[in-house]
Amino acid sequence: MHEESRDISGSGKFVREENDQAIRTLFEGVHPAQVADELSLLNEQDIWYAMRVLGVDNATRVFQYFDEDLQVRLASGEHRRMMAKMLEEMDHDDRADLVSELDEDVKDRLLPLVAHAEREDIRRLASYGEGTTGAIMSSDYASVRPGMTVEQTIQTLRLEAPDRETIYYVYVIDGVRHLVGFVELKDLIRARPNQKVEDVMKRDVIHVTVGTDQEETARMIGKYDVIALPVVDAHHELVGIVTYDDAIDVIKQEQTEDFEKFMAIGGEHEAGTYLKTNAFRHFHKRVYWIVGLAAVELVSGLVIHSYEDALTTLVLLALYMPMITDTGGNTGSQSATVVIRALALGEIRPNFVGLVKVFRKEIIVAGLMAIVLMFLSFGKVLFLSYKAVLPGEFTLSGIGSVIALALGIQVLSATMIGALLPMIAARCKLDPAVVASPALTTLVDITGLLIYFGTARMLLGV
């Protein structure tokens, strides 16, 4: 099936008419992803009919582009024999992921129909812990022995290429499957046919282990700009590879997780599941943090209540409370975002040295922002409140100066809280993204009100 895009709408009509020739003609030469999008509009029975018409090979390519929940429903149906053949043809890592999502009774009915070698491969890949490199790797790689000639290696690749996920890297293993090097396809093409693989291979192999965190593996693929990374076990035996497309999937998942944690959304964090998750599930993931934060916000009310006399004496202070709290929340969130990103990319580490580096940088940034915002806020007070009627002992410029000073202190405070909390959380083995959530805004709101009214009381005597 060639990879091109064209209008293939109307397949449902041909499926209902059981017009096999029209189905084949319609999908001929169309990219499997586009076929999957079209078939996803049909019911499961019609999808299976269309896939039987396409044949196992083409149906497998299409199946791998279905959403995970549709894959699970199709695999859990009655078409077990064709599903078993498709599992044998699927990418190794994708089929292991699918089987991991199936109910135990479905596995018990389906897996015995899969060929023994593929069945054992599925079980082995599915046994690795979630979030580890072993859980996302594929056992579908090309390997040769160091004593083989270049000509023998190329002949081996010709035979194996159709069944391998990538042949751009050929991994060199010894008699006990220890990873001893790798050779790129371009180097094989340029080498003399009678040269030994060990003479053209690279011995310094960047690799990961099955227990390496999947995010770290994805980051390494990007850092070293490689198509795939070999994966070894505790005995340094080659057991699989992780390809760049797997890394992209991991990055999407991790970004979704970070974004949702950043906004205090609990539960599982999967990319591309917003519309597929029902409203009650979304409610369940969000409500606990929101209720908890709302309870904590009562502290803000207590702070305001304790300064009720100050507000009664000088009502003008109430008009600029939102500016203080909002600015603190914004600067704190900005600081937390850049620090969390730096932690995620490994630019900084949650140790004393990293803490000092972050403090130095953020205190300079916060100081500059504070100066700019103090001038702006002072001008804002003079411009917006020039008609305000004030008690005799107060002047507008004096009140503006106090508000500007409080805002400057709030910017410094919020920026440092936003920067240091993720560092402290990471140091304590907690998730920094959870700290930099609405909880940060709540904390900054409370400290902002204390700074605001405290400054007013000290300098204005209210």
From TrEMBL:
Q: Which GO terms describe its cellular component?
A: plasma membrane
- Where does the CBS domain lie? 137-200, 201-257
Note whether Thylakoid occurs among the keywords. no
> What's its membrane topology?
Multi-pass membrane protein
Q: Where in the cell is it found?
A: Cell membrane; Membrane
- What family is it from? Belongs to the SLC41A transporter family.
The annotated subunit structure for this chain is: Homodimer.
Annotated protein name in UniProt: Magnesium transporter MgtE
